[in-house]
Amino acid sequence: KILNGKITTIVISYKDRITRFGYAFLMRFFRDLKINIYEAEQPPISTIEEQLTQDMMSLLASFSGKLFL
Fold it and tell me: pTM (2 decimals)?
């Protein structure tokens, strides 16, 4: 549906929800297809503890996904 032009806009909550690696490549690919990507507004992470927690959750999600492949 993306390649045939049926999708023109994608809204994501966080950029790591669309890809773990290669975000810049994917954004360029979508831009070349004239597809808009919007990252939903997220409150800024203010403390070092919140940043560490977010990083740990991202790592856990990544490794959990590999267990079920």
Answer: 0.50
CB count, 10 Å around CB of 19? 13
Tell me the CA end-to-end span of the chain in Å, nearest whole number: 25
pLDDT digits (tens, 9 = 90+) for 53-69: 888 988 888 888 777 66
Q: What residues does 10 pair with on adjacent strands?
A: 37
What's the Rg (C-alpha) of the chain? 15
Report the length, in residues, of the chain. 69
> DSSP 3-state assignment of 51?
helix
Flag residues of the chain having pLDDT under 70. 1, 43, 45, 68-69
Handedness of CA 29, 32, 38, 44 (dihedral sign): positive
